[in-house]
Design brief:
MPAB/Lcp_cat_dom; transmembrane; mainly alpha; membrane; single chain
């Protein structure tokens, strides 16, 4: 009996392996053909003047939608509407206003240049390296966003939109929601019509508009900081989640083929379009994405007490959630390894010895080498992707007990921001 069960499982495994190999080879073959039409050496001149001008440009579609909803000044109704959007991923509530229906319809349209073969390959690449990408989100992407002082002001102020402002639980949920957005968007089929990633990105776009609405209603200094969640800040965030992550993967020994680089960045170019980036703020290839990310970081990084506070909260989160695998010194060494001393010092990340950083790099490189060996075999790659999916779910669960992206107007709005439900 056991022999029969084993043979059946073996046959199923072989069948799945053959199907997996054929599918991935076809995807790569088609992606390689598309690569011939991409000028991978061309980059944009991301001048300081152009980026500075984009600090005063927001998102007309999302902002117009939220303004129309908020004009009703019925906070309870608005809360109910947004809660319905969160809980039902497949359809809007029956009483959703026409403006909201139009937003979801228009923002779901992918750009003409979106290529399904490159999207498929980019999402496969994410599955192969999802755990490492998730780690880099906490140790590189987010803190480098905090280093941009003007953008950090938005992040710091929007913390007040939470009833549990200042609690690690609330911060953990915000990190988990960010991770969920990345996982949903970069998982296979995530950007398909009604895909989890498409819908999550649309929700994030609306959340940005809600934040802009309230900040601008309550003495936001646009001359000093630029508009809240402006085009430059949005582009910088997306590059930190994509091109700068690839840069971080290179630090720990994970290298990509040219077609893999372009496919991965192509996914984020599409996400950028969905989330409301202007066409002239979407990089044209992987080299351009890296250049844009560093151009914004170099321009915007500056000392900021808000950035230090955000980084301190992130480090507390890391120290709590990484136990017992990593201790506080290891977390600090990993952050300094990924960001370098200049940005780390700017964010008041504690100093650690160079030997500790070198030891951390060797440890991470050793682990990634094992994964890379398995990844080179398409059969083992299938198994690796299975465990990556499982690992990502565990990682999200470890971050927060919440399984949805939070999207509502908290009670604290009526207290901190004095939102009124009256005409």
């Amino acid at each position: 009996m056991l022999t029969k069960i084993f043979l059946i499982l073996l046959i199923v495994f072989i069948g799945l392996s053959i199907s997996f190999i054929i599918k991935n080879r076809r995807i790569k073959k088609r992606a390689l053909e598309k690569l011939k039409n991409i000028n991978t050496a061309e980059t944009t001149d991301w001048t300081t003047e152009k980026l500075a001008a984009k600090r005063h440009v927001m998102d007309p579609l999302a902002d117009k939608t939220v303004a129309a909803i908020m004009a009703k000044k019925e906070v309870n109704t608005i809360n109910h509407l947004f809660e319905s959007i969160v809980l039902d991923q497949n359809k809007l509530p029956d009483d959703a206003p026409e403006e909201l229906r139009d937003f979801f319809k228009q923002s779901a349209i992918l750009p003409e240049w979106a290529d399904q073969d490159l999207i498929n390959m980019g999402q496969q690449i994410y599955l192969r390296h999802g755990i490492w990408i998730g780690i880099l989100l906490c140790y590189k992407s987010l803190p480098e966003c905090y280093a941009c002082a003007n953008g950090a002001e938005v992040l710091h102020r929007t913390a007040r939109l939470n009833e549990n402002h200042g609690s690690l639980k609330a911060f953990s949920r915000r990190i988990a929601e960010t991770a969920q957005f990345v996982v949903f968007s970069m998982s296979p089929d995530g950007l398909d019509p009604k895909g989890k990633g498409l819908i999550a990105t649309q929700k994030v776009r609306l959340i940005h508009a809600v934040i802009r609405y309230y900040l601008k209603e309550h003495n936001w200094d646009a001359e000093k900081y630029g508009e809240p969640i402006n085009q430059e800040d949005l582009a910088g965030t997306l590059m930190s989640f994509s091109a700068l992550v690839i840069e971080g993967l290179g630090i720990i020994g994970i290298e990509f083929e040219p077609v893999e680089l372009e496919a991965y960045i192509h996914c984020w170019r599409v996400i950028g379009h969905i989330v409301g980036l202007d066409d002239d703020m979407i990089p044209i290839n992987s080299a351009d994405a890296l250049k844009l990310g560093h151009s914004i970081l170099d321009k915007e990084k500056a000392p900021s007490e808000q950035a230090k506070a955000l980084t301190k909260a992130l480090r507390d989160f890391q120290n709590l959630k990484s136990k017992p695998i990593l201790g506080e010194d290891s977390n600090t060494a990993l952050m300094r390894l990924m960001m370098g001393d200049e940005v780390s010092d700017l964010l008041a990340v504690p100093s650690v010895s160079p030997e500790k950083i070198t030891k951390m790099k060797k440890r991470m490189t050793f682990l990634t080498k094992i994964g890379e060996v398995l990844d080179k075999s398409l059969v083992f790659s299938m198994v690796l992707q299975f465990f990556t999916k499982f690992g990502l779910l565990l990682l999200l669960r470890r971050m927060s007990n919440s399984s949805i992206i939070n999207f509502y107007l908290p009670k604290s709005l009526t207290q901190d921001w004095r939102a009124r439900n009256q005409p």
